[in-house]
């Protein structure tokens, strides 16, 4: 999610996946880089929101990335009476921080704010709601019906919530599932694991019986969201606007670090990133299993790895024995904001509602819609492709409701810190367990530099 980090793997993702990854808001994971001049604790109540003087029928300016522009154009075609000016920008993907930078400039000059803005960076929900006059308008205060907001997957709008209100709509989700190559799994005579302990045992067997085959990777920037989020590790749990809990020595962090360390040592979990040229060339065909986001199916296995039709399947997220629920993490998911400065809130709110909920757009979008009804139509489209070995619909739908709420959107990027701190340590021969202290210090220092109090 942030620009103060190496983003090599993200650039590789963009090169490989092209427009499809524009929709993949993994790249939600881009970046917040510079510190927000507004202290993290400075917030204003949504009850105090007072719209500027409205000008019904006035033109609205919409900022969107290249992947979302066709959707905005489709809305414009379907609503010819709405005057729209479309501005194409980075969408804050791949380490960009353009929205925050521009909004801060507009705050100083007193004009220039877009009426609507899309961001591929989930972390943008952490600053757009703060300050004396937050950029984002609270959409649940008369702009968008509660019945519409209730239609989003459980927890999907959490990055949008602050000060007792909801400040944005979620475009898509990237819930993690357990991907596996059914053809290889059947050939080797293995069963799909349902717990992390079974996954660990299978990984050790694979290393012994089929050396070179993989059950995971730990070198991707988003590895924390795949493994540690699923383990309910409190790497960043925001307790209020300016306080965050960071405890990588918690048992739910150390258990995952230990599990991965064992499989890395055996060779069945790679320290490489799945989008590196070397991995794609030499290891893609040897991926037996891979915990990862819902977009892995089409973007990674189909488009990048070019695994033939009928081999790839998805299973439910894993849990540790003793846990009552198999929580999972999330690698992406863009946000739509209505500006608090908009002179046409009605048109702005209608556009973001259509972009996030309409089957006309979401059913054919590149990634899994956050709106449950649109997700049903999207999954029907996935089934029609005939790519997967079995219908992924029930797994995706269940996983969308299992994202652990204790992993918070913050002004800093977990991916950025993992890339600059943990990945180099792994490549130098250190274990994840050995690196937990350094990782915690890096998170703590970054959080404090942005105004957070760290517990």
Automatic annotation (TrEMBL):
<protein>
    <submittedName>
        <fullName>ABC transporter substrate-binding protein</fullName>
    </submittedName>
</protein>
<feature type="signal peptide">
    <location>
        <begin position="1"/>
        <end position="30"/>
    </location>
</feature>
<dbReference type="Pfam" id="PF01547">
    <property type="entry name" value="SBP_bac_1"/>
</dbReference>
<dbReference type="InterPro" id="IPR050490">
    <property type="entry name" value="Bact_solute-bd_prot1"/>
</dbReference>
<dbReference type="InterPro" id="IPR006059">
    <property type="entry name" value="SBP"/>
</dbReference>
<keyword id="KW-0732">Signal</keyword>
């Amino acid at each position: 999610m942030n620009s103060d980090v190496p983003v090599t793997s993200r650039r590789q993702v963009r090169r490989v996946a092209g427009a499809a990854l524009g929709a993949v808001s993994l790249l939600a994971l881009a970046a917040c880089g510079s510190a927000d001049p507004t202290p993290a604790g400075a917030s204003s109540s949504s009850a105090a929101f007072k719209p500027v003087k409205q000008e019904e029928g006035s033109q609205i300016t919409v900022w969107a990335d290249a992947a979302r522009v066709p959707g905005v154009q489709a809305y414009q075609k379907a609503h010819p009476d709405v005057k729209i000016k479309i501005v194409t920008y980075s969408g804050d993907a791949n380490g960009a921080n353009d929205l925050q930078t521009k909004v801060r400039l507009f705050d100083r000059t007193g004009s220039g704010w877009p009426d609507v803005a899309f961001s591929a960076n989930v972390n943008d929900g952490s600053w757009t709601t703060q300050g004396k006059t937050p950029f984002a308008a609270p959409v649940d205060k008369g702009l968008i019906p509660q019945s519409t907001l209730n239609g989003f997957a459980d927890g999907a709008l959490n990055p949008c919530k602050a000060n007792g209100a909801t400040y944005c709509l979620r475009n898509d989700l990237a819930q993690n599932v357990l991907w596996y190559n059914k053809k290889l799994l059947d050939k080797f005579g293995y069963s799909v694991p349902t717990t992390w302990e079974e996954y660990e045992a299978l990984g050790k067997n694979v290393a012994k019986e089929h050396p070179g085959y993989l059950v995971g990777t730990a070198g991707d920037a988003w590895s924390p969201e795949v493994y540690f989020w699923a383990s309910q590790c409190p790497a960043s749990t925001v307790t209020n606007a300016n306080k965050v809990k960071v405890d990588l020595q918690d048992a739910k962090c150390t258990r995952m670090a230990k599990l991965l360390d064992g499989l890395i040592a055996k060779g069945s979990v790679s320290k490489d990133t799945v989008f590196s040229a070397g991995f794609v060339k030499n290891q893609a065909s040897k991926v037996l299993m891979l915990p990862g986001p819902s977009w892995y199916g089409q973007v990674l296995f189909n488009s990048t790895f070019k695994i033939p039709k009928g081999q790839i399947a998805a299973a439910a997220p894993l849990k540790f024995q003793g846990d009552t629920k198999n929580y999972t993490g999330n690698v992406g998911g863009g946000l739509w904001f209505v500006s608090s400065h908009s002179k046409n809130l009605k048109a702005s709110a209608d556009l973001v509602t259509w972009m996030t909920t309409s089957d006309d757009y979401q059913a054919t979008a590149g990634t899994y819609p956050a709106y449950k009804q649109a997700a049903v139509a999207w999954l029907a489209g996935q089934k029609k492709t005939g790519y997967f070995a079995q219908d992924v619909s029930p797994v995706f739908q269940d996983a969308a409701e299992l994202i652990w709420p204790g992993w918070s959107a913050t002004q800093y990027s977990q991916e950025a810190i993992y890339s600059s701190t943990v990945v180099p340590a792994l490549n130098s021969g250190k274990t994840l367990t050995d690196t937990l202290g350094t990782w915690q210090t890096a998170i703590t220092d970054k959080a404090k530099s942005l105004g957070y109090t760290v517990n």
